[in-house]
Structure formats: structure tokens, C-alpha cells
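Pilot study result, target chain (228 residues):
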Amino acid sequence: MSDGPQETKRIFCNTCKGLTNHLLRTRNLFLEQIYDDFDEEVFGFHEHRYSLWSCAGCTAPTLEWQMGPPSSDNEEWEEFAFGYFPPREKDSIQRKRFRNLKPELSLLYGEVVTCFNSDCLLLCTIGLRALIEAVCKDKGVAGRDLKDRISGLIKFLPSLNLIEALHDFRLAGNDAVHELQALTRDDARASIEVIELNFLYDLDYKATQIRNSSKRAALKSDTPSAVQ
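Predicted structure:
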């Protein structure tokens, strides 16, 4: 590192949840020799650059990895392949916690979110279809196939728009399994937000709370007062 002014860079901070100034703490370069798989006499060199940054606000560390041709200047490095560790959470989905969700559904939902955050969109799309089928089974909705079972969810989801959306996810899952066609990242995010089960399970929990509160209030009103 040079003795000049400390280098800074704008990076999304997972702790501050936004773009912040990061200060360069240390940097190392490693030269790698690359051989051609078909001709061992043909080779080249790639340079790997590892930069350790810390957020100027919260001091959380971030390791940046870059790869490019040797002897590049700093401006050229910014054009080459790079990644961060830990991965940036800017475009990730935060997994929600549901009080009444059964363990097997919670596991499947968590894996769908993990696939999305890892850019495994094909598996995410397949997982969304599996999650819909698991919800139908959990709700006891009968039918000869998933199409019928989704239509049967109307008793729990009094909205034809939601039912149609679930049918779209079913078709996308079929395409993912048979045609290896995944949802785009934006469509996968929207699909997860729709099927995040909040309208199925948190509302069940809140309804149970209301019923229990009503029962307690009724019992209290039926209890004779000790003071006449």
C-alpha cells in the first residue's frame, strides 16, 4: 500500500444496511499461472487482488476479491470480475419467522429463500412449486392434481388474483423441472413475497389470539364479582 491518502470506496454495508464509505485496511496480490486444457504449452497469467475494507461508520469488515490481468492500475481493476465476503445483502431476502409454521414447511421455505439469495434460481423456482404443494397438503385441500388443489385454496384465500398467482408459480415450477427454465430474479422475488405464507399462517395465529382473548373476556364477565 502507498503512503498517500487512505483509499476509500462506496460499498453496501450489511450492518448499516446501505451504501457507506469503506476504508482500505490492507491489500495483497497473488499471481496465478493458467494452462490451456488442450495445449500445455499455452498458458497465461491472472492476478488475484484481495482488499480488506472496513465500514467508516460501524467498522464492519468486508473482504473484496478481484481477478484480472497482471500489472493493472487501480481504475482497471474496477472493471474486472469481483466478489465480496460476506456476500452483500443488498438484494437478498430476509427470511421471516412464523409462529405456527410446521417444521417441514419452515425447512422448505428456508431453503427456497437460501436458493434465491445464492442465485440458484432454477432450484428456487422448483422449490416454490414444492412449497405450494406442501401448503395445500397442510391445509387438507384435496384434488386429483396440484391444479385442482390450488383452486381449492379459495376457501382460505378469498381472492381470485392470489389463486391465479399460485397457478402461475405452479406452471413456472413445471417449466423449471421439465424445460430447465427458471424465473428471473425479479419474478422469483415477487413470487416469494406472495407465497411467504403470511396470509395463511400469521393470520391464523392472530385469529387464534382474538378467539382466545374473546373467551377470556367472556369468562371474566361471567365470574360473579366479589364486591356486591
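One observation from the pilot: The beta strands are 8-13, 18-35, 43-55, 61-68, 81-85. A full batch analysis is planned for the follow-on phase.
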